[in-house]
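Bench notes, afternoon.
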Amino acid sequence: MALLEPNYYGLWLGKQTAKGTPNAAPISRPIMVAGDFSIARDDGEENYSDLTKYGARTDWVNSLLGSAEPVLEATPTELAYLLWLFHGAETVTAEVAVTGPPVVPAMSRHRFVPSTAMGHWLTAYLRVGSSVLRRHQFNDCVVTRVAIEASSANKAARVTGRMLSLDPAAIYSADPSAALPADRPFLFTDASQVGAAAAATVDGSIILDGVTFRGVTQFALTIDDAWEPVYGDDSRPYDFVQGAPSVAVAATIYADAAGMAQFNRLVYGASTPTAGTKPLRSIPALGSFVGTLRQRDSAGLHAGRELVATLPGVKWAIPDAPGPNPDGGATEFALAGAMRPVAGQPAYTVDVMTAASVVAFTV
C-alpha cells in the first residue's frame, strides 16, 4: 500500500483582491526548504455528573486557525514578492545598466520601508506527496513576520514568513501552474569583498556601526508586525489586531581585532580602552547595521541581483566576553540588537534588486 511521499511538495502564493476572495491562480512558487502549514484546532469541554463513575462531558471547538512558518530560499523575485505581501506596498525604480568597468546590468529596485497598514491578504496552496496526496488551500492569510538570514553553515540565504490564515485547509484538486524560480538564491558569500578597486560595485559587505567586518559567520534581520487573530462569535477568527511591532538584528562575529574592538566599543565606549577603563554605566550611542549581498556571475561580474538591508539605529545588547578554551580554536560572539528610531530616516529599508523585467507587483 502506498504512503504519502513527503519529499514531493510544492508551495504557491498569490495576493487576494480582498479578504474573503481567494486567489485561484497564484503567481509565486518559492523554493521551500523547511516548515509547514498547520491546522490548529483547540477543543474545550466541561464535565457534569450523570450519576455514573466517569460522568459526562459537553464538548465544543474553541478555535480553529491556520498557521505556518515556511522557510524559503531567498531567490530575488520571490523574496521581493513575499516582502511586498508583508508590507502591502513597495517602491519600484529602474536601475539603468552601467557599461563599466565593471559592467552592472539593468535592474529593478524593489524598496520596502515600514508601513502602518496590514499587508496584502493572500492565498497559499500547499501540496505534499505524489501517489498519495495532501492538498490544502489556506485562504485569507496575512504575513505577520519575516526573517531574512544567511550563514556560513548554510550558504543559501533564507527568508521565513510567519503566516496566519482565517480560512484554513480547504481541499483543492489541481496544483497551480506557476513554476519554480530560475534565479539562484542570494548566498552568504555574496557578502564577501573581492578586493579589487575596479570591482567595488560588485562587493558585498556586512557593516556594523560603520565598520566593515569580514569575520562574520551569520546575520539575521527579523521584522515582526505582531498581527494576531481576533475571535468573535465563531470558532474561526474574523480579523487580526496588531500587538507590539518590533525589528531585530543579529550577527555572529569572530573575536579577531575588529571583533574585539566592537566588543570594547559596546562595553567600554572605546575600541581601544586604556588601562583602568571600566564598563559603561550609561547607554552608548546607537549603532547601525547594513548588510549587502551582491550576486556575481561565474566571471566575477555583477549579476544584476542585490539585497541590501539597512537599520540606521540599533541598540546592541552587551554580549558575553569571549571565554577561555583549553582546546583552542576560533572564538566568536553573538551580537543581538533592537531597532531604535533615528530622526528623518525610516526605521529600516530593505532593497531587493531583481531582473529589470520584474516590475511592480500587482497580483
